[in-house]
Structures are given as structure tokens and as C-alpha cells.
């Protein structure tokens, strides 16, 4: 005999459903996300490179798969709560084995893991691949607590990184800007002058440690013009939080004009102004390091 709407069992079920709906609503509201942001599951809405779009697609696919498994499990839980709720004092029939369910709970996770592993291996290989002959070489040198960006092809030998190359160095007053062309394979070589740092551009959905004595490399193609904030993602000392930079992606024509202006002796800011770009970083700004002012 089914429980009446006013029975204790029915009230418990309605209370459980109400709490679940309220909890889901609170999670949505407290995250402070818009409807559009909610479907990005915490990842940046901009993916300016093929590599970042591949990682984003995998993240969304994994999230959808996880939600599907969650909905299935929640459905089973609620179905069991409703279907097998206590209806009397008699002990219900006991089932010791259920071969179909045991096969489902064994094979299902294995298949899900195999699919995730397959796509992870493919995308990781694409993201970490470095071509032997890229369109552009850039050397990133991290130091406490800023960045130096060099363009080795502007010097006499791409393997020699010295002051003959065009370079940009950040300081406490000016955020360094790494200018790159769109649609080109860019190989970034990382060097550290002191401790471990990490080159991270959140919109690229990728970061790589900069390790002393180790020459790390990765490759990226940015196909959307714009300014992208960069940060150090490895705790490297007192002013780690101030190690910001900006990647400025421009058209290949403007990039060539920029490099030509730099070769002729113009500063980064002068060359950026010449090609119609903002001369200073627009996605981040220097931190106030005047600690004497705080004491006053």
C-alpha cells in the first residue's frame, strides 16, 4: 500500500527533494556566474589558440560525462529511496548477487576511463609538440621578479642570445609586453636566471615551468588578435605576485613593422604606438611597491 500524501514517508521525500532543489539553486547563485559563464565551468571564455580550444573541448566533454554519470547515480539513489521506502514492518526480500549490475559497475568505469585516456593522450601530444622549424622563435627569461622577452632571429645567430637581439625587459614601473604575430607557429624557449618560475597565460589554458639550468620549450599558435594577461604560476619569492606580463597578438604585417622599428632602435612603447597599439599593458598594471607610503 502506497503512502498517503500526508504520511511521514511522503513528507520526508518532499523534504529531501526540496533540500536538493534549494542546494542546487544556492550553488548556482553563490558562484556569482552568469548563465553564459556557467557553461564554461570556470574556464576562460576566450580560447585564442588551436591548442587551447582542444583543451577546452576536452574539459567540456569531461564535465558533461561527469554530469551524466552524476545524474545517473542521483537518479538511482532517488529511485531507490522512493521505490524501496519502508512500507511496513516486514523485512523486504534480500538480493545477494546481481550479475547485470555488477557487470555495469565494472565495465562502465573502465570504458569511461579508456575514452578519457585516449583523448587526453592525443590532445597532450598536440599541445606539447614542438616543430623543428617554427615560424618564430622567442626566448623567455624569468628572473626575480620580472621577465625578459628576446627575439633571437633579429640577431646574428638564433642560438646566441645576447644584447644584439631585440628584447623587452620589465621592471617595477612597466609591465613587459611580448608581441607576437597571429597565425604563426611560435616556439617559446624558457630560461631562468635564478629560481623556478612558471610562464602562464590563462587564456591559452597552458603553463610551463621555467627551471634553472633547464631549457624548456613549447609551441603555440595564436589566431585571435588581442591582449592576453600573463603571470608567474610558481611561488618564487617575495614579489612573486608582481611577476605579470602581457602577450600582444597582432597581424603578421604589424608584427614585421614592430620588429623593424625595434631593430632601428625604437623602444617597445614607441614601436607599439607606431603600429597603432596601446604602448603599455592594458590587461594588468604594476603593483604599488612603495611600502614607505603605507607606513605613513
How would you describe this structure to a colleague?
The radius of gyration is 28 Å and the shape is elongated. It is built from seven helices and ten strands. Mean pLDDT is 84; it is low at 156-162. It has two domains: 33-87 and 96-128, no CATH class; 136-285, Immunoglobulin-like (Sandwich). 21% of the residues are buried. It has helices at 8-30, 35-38, 50-83, 99-128, 252-263, 268-274, 291-295, and strands at 136-143, 146-151, 166-169, 177-181, 186-192, 197-201, 206-210, 216-220, 226-232, 244-250. The longest helix has 34 residues, at 50-83. It has a five-stranded mixed beta sheet. Strands 4-10-9-6-7 form a five-stranded mixed beta sheet, covered by helices on one side. It starts with 7 loop residues before the first helix and ends with a helix. A hairpin with a 4-residue loop joins strand 6 and strand 7 (206-210). It has 296 residues and is an alpha+beta fold.
Amino acid at each position: 500500500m502506497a503512502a498517503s500524501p500526508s504520511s511521514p514517508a511522503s513528507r520526508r521525500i518532499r523534504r529531501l527533494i526540496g533540500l536538493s532543489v534549494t542546494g542546487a539553486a544556492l550553488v548556482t547563485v553563490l558562484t556569482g556566474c552568469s548563465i553564459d559563464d556557467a557553461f564554461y565551468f570556470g574556464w576562460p571564455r576566450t580560447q585564442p589558440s588551436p591548442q587551447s580550444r582542444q583543451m577546452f573541448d576536452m574539459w567540456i566533454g569531461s564535465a558533461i560525462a561527469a554530469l551524466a554519470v552524476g545524474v545517473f547515480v542521483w537518479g538511482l539513489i532517488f529511485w531507490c529511496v522512493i521505490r524501496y521506502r519502508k512500507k511496513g514492518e516486514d523485512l523486504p526480500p534480500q538480493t545477494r548477487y546481481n550479475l547485470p549490475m555488477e557487470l555495469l559497475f565494472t565495465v562502465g568505469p573502465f570504458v569511461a576511463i579508456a575514452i578519457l585516456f585516449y583523448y587526453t593522450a592525443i590532445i597532450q601530444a598536440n599541445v606539447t609538440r614542438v616543430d623543428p622549424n617554427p615560424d618564430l622563435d622567442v626566448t623567455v627569461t624569468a628572473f626575480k621578479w620580472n621577465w625578459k622577452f628576446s627575439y633571437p632571429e633579429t640577431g646574428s645567430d638564433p642560438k646566441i642570445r645576447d644584447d644584439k637581439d631585440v628584447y623587452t625587459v620589465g621592471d617595477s614601473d612597466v609591465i613587459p609586453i611580448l608581441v607576437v604575430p597571429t597565425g604563426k607557429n611560435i616556439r617559446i624557449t624558457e630560461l631562468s636566471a635564478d629560481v623556478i618560475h612558471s610562464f602562464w597565460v590563462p587564456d591559452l589554458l597552458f603553463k610551463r615551468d621555467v627551471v634553472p639550468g633547464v631549457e624548456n620549450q613549447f609551441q603555440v599558435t595564436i589566431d585571435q588578435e588581442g591582449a592576453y594577461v600573463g603571470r608567474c604560476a610558481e611561488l618564487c619569492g617575495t614579489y612573486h605576485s608582481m611577476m605579470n606580463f602581457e602577450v600582444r597578438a597582432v597581424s603578421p604585417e604589424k608584427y614585421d613593422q614592430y620588429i623593424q622599428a625595434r631593430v632601428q632602435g625604437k623602444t617597445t612603447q614607441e614601436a607599439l604606438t607606431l603600429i597603432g597599439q596601446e604602448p603599455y599593458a592594458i590587461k594588468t598594471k604594476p603593483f604599488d611597491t612603495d611600502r614607505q607610503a603605507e607606513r605613513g
